[in-house]
Amino acid sequence: MSTNQSSAIDQLSTEDLGAKLNPNLLPKHVAIIMDGNGRWAEARYLPRIAGHREGVKSIREITQACSDLGIQALTIYAFSHENWNRPAHETSALMNLLEDFLAEESRKLIEHGIRFRTIGRIKNLPASTIQRVHEAEQATAHLDRLHLTVALSYGGRAEIVDAVREILRDVQKGTLQPDEVDEAVLQQHLYTQGLPDPDLLIRTSGETRISNFLLWQLAYAELYFTPTLWPDFRRHEFLLALLDYQGRERRFGRVLSRTTSS
Asked: Rounded to two decimals, what is the model's pTM?
């Protein structure tokens, strides 16, 4: 897409962007690295937690957009394993914000048929947060309109290590032979088992790296980077990302044949 074409599309209304989408070419699974909450707050001389609170509004809007469009799965990177290195007051505020979100949103998730689940080393979370997470997971376990997965205390390398440990336990028990271990077996032991791999990864705030997120699952995902900070990333920006995705040629390692007319 040329710069002029991109600029013209950016100026379209949210309704016009939606009309341009091809419902048959939507991703089944979208993953998002939600970046820029702190910078959003700092630019407004607000405490960092204010950016995180505003970012929750974006989560609500993008989740609703996925549900409206019929996208099957949305996975968001909320808190990495490395984020525990942040100041204690910030991590505590983030956990409280998560608990408040679940308390407020659980009923809406059920009403909209959205299943909530978490991935990561959840045992590292505070006990009260773990309880809220488990309550939301149990209350929505029967729903399947949209699978909303939140990565908490998550790291892609740690996920692969945990999968390998589970496989080794199966081998030790004799329920699995070493020669039977292949990509499919490893995938069955990942946190995301049961979900399709993401078709599209979105990262906000202008950073262009995947930061230890879904390292295995993103092998063939299309990557979309935007300078928009996460609290400003709403339905309009999401539709722009989907339109960009629909313009990609997905090969999965193949060379697509081209036919020519004589």
From this structure: 0.92
